[in-house]
Amino acid sequence: MKSLDIILYSSQYINNITGDITLQYEIIRDHTALCQNICDILTKSLSANQDFCQEFLNYHQLPQLFMSLFINVTLDNNNAFDGQNAFVSFLNELCETLGRLPSEQKKQGEILFRLIFENMIFAVLKSQCMSYIILKFVADFLCKYNLKHHFECDLDVFNIMTELVQYVKHQQNLATSKNMEELKIEACFYILQQYLQRNQNYLHFFGQDLGLVSEILSNGVFRLPSLDKSQVPKYTSKSLIKRAFDMLSLLSMNEMNFTVAINFLHGIHILGIWRNCKPSSWNLYAHIKRRTIQYSGLKNLGCSTDLL
Fold first, then answer.
1. Long-range Cβ pairs for the range 286-294 (8 Å, 24+)
2. Residue/partner pairs of 266-270 with CB below 8 Å, 24 or more apart
3. 3-state secondary structure string, 180-212?
4. What is the DSSP string of 145-164?
5. Residue 7's CB: how many other CB atoms inside 10 A?
6. Which of 30, 152, 176, 247 could disulfide-pair with 106, CB 3.0 to 4.6 Å?
7. pLDDT tens-place string over residues 201-255
8. Model's pTM, two decimal places?
9. Where are the domains of the chain?
């Protein structure tokens, strides 16, 4: 436990230092690297000694230690990606080690999973630093594990998934940091996709009751832009549009979702659409940036009569 006390103290110290915006970039970089080293130490400790998993999960200040490590790797600086990779590597090793423990010891992981699903996901979505790799870890976890089957954990993530749908629906078109917002929506779709793959009995509820099919079609991809640009499609990047269509394909495994999607797309087919069938056209912004220099069309050289 004493080693974890030291790690907690070090992590909280890093958090206080890097939170000081008056510090120079070099100092922040060094302390972010220190946080990465802490995650590497935890990962190697798990690999070397399986008993360290129980020690970590039984630590009396586990929530403070976990969130302190998480906060440090989601800082908005150029070195955040390396820290996030180290943090995710530690989480993967922790989950794999926990999965190998006897059944009666696996229940100790419930507090960890509550921190991941109830705290970490929404902390990432609210942060100013896009920690896509951390959200990807959550999606990959849902693809690989079943909480009840693999960890004897009774945590039901259904309500958390419904909150992710609400997050996607309430995201507006922001002129600033648009790429970050689209990455967050893409990550939410990835998490929802992995969850619904394992729980296809909820496809109708998510598609119709929560309105996810309508959100993808009417607001996300096929919303026609208005002349004043106040109304534009929410999804503009190629990767997000692809993820949205993957999500729609999964939802369409339910008959009602499929019917709603087909009826909507049939109307688009009959009326025509402002985006064409080329894949490259789907990553264009709705508004067209006009040239402010050079000429559009013919240049008047004052000799038009000579051309007759």
1. 286/225, 286/229, 286/232, 286/233, 286/236, 287/225, 287/229, 287/232
2. 268/222
3. HHHHHHHHHHHHHHHHHHHCHHHHHHHHHHCCH
4. --HHHHH------HHHHHHH
5. 20
6. 152
7. 999 999 999 999 999 998 888 876 666 666 677 888 888 999 999 999 999 999 9
8. 0.78
9. 1-155, 163-284
